[in-house]
C-alpha cells in the first residue's frame, strides 16, 4: 500500500485579485491572515469596497494577523474565534451571494478542505475559488475503520480517538470528505509500526 | 479448450468469509475458462485496452460474464451490504439517470447472452424481468424509481457478478459518481466518491511517470455507446476473500503473515480482474465494472499447469514497486518459491489465452 508520493493531494494557488469578480469573499484562519493581507494590498479600492473578510483566530501555531486585518478599515471584516464558526459565516455569506462572487481561502489544509465542502454545496466552480495554504502542515484525517475525523494531526502515525487503533496517514486526499486517509498502521502484524515521522510536507 | 464448452453447474452455497470457512473452490472447467492476465513471462503495466468483443468460449464470450459462482457471489453481496450499510454501495443524488442506464445495460446483456437464465420483456416503459438463477420475477416502470424497492443500480447489481463503479464526465475529466463495490481490492468507496481520474489513480505507482493516465483518460473520453472496451488486471489475495476493502483491513491484512513456503499453494489466490468499460447512452457516464475471479495457486497447478508456470515467472520478475503497491511484500517470496516447484522452464506461448495463438491452460 502506497503511503507517500500519492498524487491526489490538492495543488494550492496563490491568492491574487480575480478581476472578473463583482463581490469578493476571503475566508482565512490563523496564518492564513498573511496571504489575505497581501491579497487586499493588491486590490483596487473598488475591489476592497466589495470585499468581505471572515477571519478565525483559531490557530495551531498561534499566529494571528487580527490587528493588521482590523487596520484595513475600508474592508468589511467578521472575526470569529473558531474555524467551525468561520465555516458557518461562509455559509451565511454564500447564501445571499450573487453571480460574480469570487472566493479566496487561506489557512491549514483541513480548513481549506472543509471550506471547499461549503463552497461546493453552493455550486461554486473551481475557477471562482483560489486557495492558498498557510501555516503548519497539520492534517485532517478520516479513519477508514470507524469513520472518525481527527483535526490537526502532525505525525505519520497517530492513535484514532474513535477506535483507538494506531493509524498511518496516507498522502491520499478526498475532497468530498476534506480529509486524508488513515488506516491501521500495524495491520499485518500487531505492534509492527512504521516510523512515526513529523508530517512536514 | 474443448472442455470449457459445457457450462459448469452453479454452486449456491460457497462462502468467501472466514466465518463461513472459505468454502469457495473452482471446478476444473471453472479454472480453464478464466481470463488469465499474463501474456508474457515478465509483467509491467500497460493500458492493454482492446475492443470488448466476444472471444473464445470462456470468460470473454459474454458482455458480462457469469460463472459457476454466480449464485454464491450474489448472496455474498447481500450479506456484505447488510453487515456494513453505506460502506459498499454509494450513489450521489444526481446519478439516477446513469443508474437506469446501467440497469438496462446489465439486464439486456444478461438476457441476450444467457437466455436460459434471464428474460427481459419490455412493453414500452413497463418492464418484466425474470432471473431464474435467483428466483426473481419482477415488473417495474423503467425510469420510475418508486416502482423498485431499491435504487435501480443497487437492484441490478445485487443480481450481477463483479463490482461496478460509475464515472460521470465533467469538464473533460471522469469523476466517481456511484459504486457497488462489495469486493473491492484495498480501497474505500466512500473516500473515493467524487474523485477525479488522476486522483483516484493516485495510489498506483509509475502510472503518472509512464504517461499511461493521460493516454487512458483521453481514450476513455472518446468512448461511444455500443463500443465497449476491456482490459484485465490482477493482484494476489490470501484466502478466497472477495471483500478486501480498506475499511476491513484489520480483519484481512493479518492473513498475509500466515503464508509459508509450504501452505502458499492453498492460501495464496490469484485475483483476476476483467474490466469491460461501457459508455452509457442517456447519462453519458462510463461504467467501469471489475469482474473478479479468484483461483488458488494449487488449483492453477492442478488444472492449468502452463498458466501456473507463467504466473511463477511473472511474479519472480515483478517490479519491487508493484510488489509493495499490491501488498505482497510479506508473502511474495513464498508464493514464488511454491510455484517454482512446478515450473520446468519450458517455453510458453505469448499473448492472452482468448487471442489467436495465446497461452492456453496446458494439459
Keywords:
heterodimer, A: 201 residues, alpha/beta, Rossmann fold, five-stranded mixed β-sheet, 23% helix, B: 363 residues, alpha+beta, seven-stranded antiparallel β-sheet, three-stranded antiparallel β-sheet, disordered N terminus, metal-binding (chain A), iron-sulfur (chain A), oxidoreductase activity (chain A), oxidoreductase (chain A), DmmA-like_C (chain A)
Tell me the number of structural domains of chain A.
2
Question: What's the average pLDDT of chain A?
Answer: 93
Oligomer status: heterodimer
CATH homology superfamily of the largest domain in chain A = Nucleotide-binding domain of ferredoxin-NADP reductase (FNR) module
Number-wise, the strands of chain A total: 10
Main beta-sheet annotation of chain B: 7 strands, antiparallel
Whole-number total of structural domains of chain B = 1
- Topology as H/E string of chain B? HEHEHEEEHEEHHHEHHEEHHHH
| Tertiary shape of chain A | elongated
Sequence stretches where pLDDT stays below 50 over 5 or more residues of chain A = none
Radius of gyration of chain A: 18 Å
Lateral strand order in the biggest sheet of chain A: 3-2-1-4-5
Integer-rounded radius of gyration of chain B: 20 Å
Q: Beta-sheet strand percentage of chain B?
A: 15-25%
What is the β-strand count of chain B?
10
State the CATH class of the largest domain in chain A: Alpha Beta
Helix content of chain B: 25-40%
Order of helices and strands of chain A: EHHEHEHEHEEEEEE
Organism (chain A): Microcella frigidaquae
GO molecular function, one term (chain A): metal ion binding
Domain Dimethylamine monooxygenase subunit DmmA-like N-terminal (chain A): 5-129
Domain Dimethylamine monooxygenase subunit DmmA-like C-terminal (chain A): 140-183
Amino acid at each position: 500500500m502506497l503511503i507517500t508520493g500519492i498524487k491526489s493531494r490538492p495543488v494550492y494557488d496563490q491568492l491574487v485579485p480575480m478581476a472578473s469578480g463583482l463581490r469578493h469573499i476571503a475566508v482565512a484562519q490563523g496564518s492564513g491572515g498573511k496571504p489575505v493581507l497581501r491579497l487586499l494590498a493588491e486590490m483596487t479600492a473598488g475591489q476592497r469596497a466589495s470585499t468581505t473578510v471572515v477571519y478565525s483566530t483559531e490557530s495551531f501555531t498561534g499566529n494571528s494577523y487580527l490587528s493588521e486585518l482590523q487596520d484595513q478599515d475600508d474592508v468589511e471584516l467578521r472575526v470569529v474565534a473558531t474555524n467551525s464558526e468561520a465555516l458557518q459565516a461562509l455559509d451565511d455569506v454564500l447564501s445571499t451571494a450573487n453571480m460574480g462572487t469570487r472566493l479566496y481561502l487561506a489557512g491549514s489544509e483541513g480548513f481549506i478542505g472543509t471550506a471547499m465542502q461549503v463552497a461546493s454545496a453552493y455550486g461554486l466552480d473551481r475557477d471562482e475559488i483560489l486557495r492558498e495554504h498557510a501555516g503548519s502542515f497539520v492534517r485532517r484525517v478520516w479513519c477508514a475503520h470507524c469513520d472518525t475525523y481527527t483535526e490537526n494531526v502532525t505525525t505519520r502515525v497517530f492513535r484514532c480517538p474513535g477506535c483507538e487503533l494506531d493509524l498511518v496517514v496516507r498522502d491520499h486526499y478526498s475532497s468530498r470528505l476534506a480529509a486524508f486517509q488513515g488506516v491501521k498502521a500495524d495491520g499485518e502484524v500487531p505492534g509492527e509500526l512504521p516510523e512515526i515521522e513529523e508530517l512536514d510536507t | 479448450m474443448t472442455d470449457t464448452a459445457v457450462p459448469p453447474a452453479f454452486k449456491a452455497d460457497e462462502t468467501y468469509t472466514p466465518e463461513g470457512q472459505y468454502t469457495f473452490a473452482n471446478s476444473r472447467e471453472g479454472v480453464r475458462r478464466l481470463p488469465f492476465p499474463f501474456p508474457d513471462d515478465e509483467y509491467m503495466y500497460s493500458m492493454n485496452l482492446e475492443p470488448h468483443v466476444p472471444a473464445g468460449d470462456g470468460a470473454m464470450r459474454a458482455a458480462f460474464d457469469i460463472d459457476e459462482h454466480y449464485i454464491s457471489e450474489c448472496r455474498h453481496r447481500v450479506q456484505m451490504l447488510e453487515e456494513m450499510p453505506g460502506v459498499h454501495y454509494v450513489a450521489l443524488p444526481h446519478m439516477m439517470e446513469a443508474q437506469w442506464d446501467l440497469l438496462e445495460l446489465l439486464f439486456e446483456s444478461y438476457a441476450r447472452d444467457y437466455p436460459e437464465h434471464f428474460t427481459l420483456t419490455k412493453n414500452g416503459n413497463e418492464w418484466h424481468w425474470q432471473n431464474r438463477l435467483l428466483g426473481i420475477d419482477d415488473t417495474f416502470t423503467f425510469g420510475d424509481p418508486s416502482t423498485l424497492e431499491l435504487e435501480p443500480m443497487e437492484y441490478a447489481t445485487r443480481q450481477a457478478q463483479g463490482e461496478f463503479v460509475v464515472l460521470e464526465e465533467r469538464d473533460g475529466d471522469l469523476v466517481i459518481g456511484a459504486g457497488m463495490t462489495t469486493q473491492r481490492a484495498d480501497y474505500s468507496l466512500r473516500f473515493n466518491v467524487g474523485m477525479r481520474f488522476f486522483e483516484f489513480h493516485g495510489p498506483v505507482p509509475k502510472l503518472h511517470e509512464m504517461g499511461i493516465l493521460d493516454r487512458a483518460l483521453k481514450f476513455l473520453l472518446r468512448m461511444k455507446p455500443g463500443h465497449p472496451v476491456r482490459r484485465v488486471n490482477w493482484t494476489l489475495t490470501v484466502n478466497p476473500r472477495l471483500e478486501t476493502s480498506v475499511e476491513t483491513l484489520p480483519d484481512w491484512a493479518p492473513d498475509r503473515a500466515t503464508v509459508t513456503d509450504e501452505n502458499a499453494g492453498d492460501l495464496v489466490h490469484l485475483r483476476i480482474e476483467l474490466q469491460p468499460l461501457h459508455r452509457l447512452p442517456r447519462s453519458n457516464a462510463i461504467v467501469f465494472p471489475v469482474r473478479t475471479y479468484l483461483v488458488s495457486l494449487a488449483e492453477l497447478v492442478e488444472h492449468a499447469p502452463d498458466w501456473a508456470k507463467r504466473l511463477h515467472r511473472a511474479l519472480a520478475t515483478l517490479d519491487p514497486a508493484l510488489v509493495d503497491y499490491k501488498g505482497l511484500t510479506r508473502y511474495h517470496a513464498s508464493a514464488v518459491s511454491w510455484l517454482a516447484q512446478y515450473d520446468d522452464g519450458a517455453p510458453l506461448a505469448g499473448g492472452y489465452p482468448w487471442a489467436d495463438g495465446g497461452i492456453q491452460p496446458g494439459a
